[in-house]
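Progress note, project year one: complex with iron/sulfur cluster.
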Amino acid sequence: MPNEIKHSCVDCAVTLCDAHNPEKKFPPFCISRAMTEEQRDKSLKEYFTDPEDKKIIQVAATVESEGYRKWPRVQETILFAKRMGYKKIGIATCTALIKESRTLTKMLRANGFEVYGISCKAGEVPKTELGIPPMHHGPGHIACNPVLQAQLLEEEGTDLNIVMGLCVGHDILFNKHSHAPTTTLVVKDRVLMHNPAAALHHADGYYKNLCEDIGE
Ligand code: SF4
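Model obtained:
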């Protein structure tokens, strides 16, 4: 752990930051209070110079407000895509989530979208070709290939890509290489039914050990 912690929003107990609420007591390190006008304006400028960013933030607000505590994420995703005017959806799926990806495809097609999905094992590249030693070939010798997934979806000209359960690291590479805007519907967690938040909810119990250095 670093000797000196630079406090930020993650160290703050205030929720729903809002300077207009007199009951809110902001910490001395409050990010909103400390930031310059220039920093704030730099972000706002982005929304007004990039029409896509502006549309995304405005459409997201309609989905959040109308679906708040009513719509599951998949419904939000479908409606977001419709309101954005997207026509073709790419799915970057883990092979282990192929059943769920088929169901998602059925839902998307029923809502008028063209769907094109690429599995993580497409291309069938052996792990040895990526310089991965045999001791790390479990649970199989064929590598996931998130860069290929992103490249093939780009060739197809998808308007939006949806990540379905890619592994940690593979999701990072897919996001890095995806040219279309990308959202995640399923986050892989093989132990917690793809709900990684469960380990955070139980950090004072079953997963207490994770609050200490767990080593390499
Ligand atoms: S902006 Fe200020 S009040 Fe809001 S979470 Fe960050 S530190 Fe807390």
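Residues 20 and 26 are 12 Å apart (CA to CA).
The first helix runs from residue 31 to 34.
No further modelling is planned for this target in the current period.
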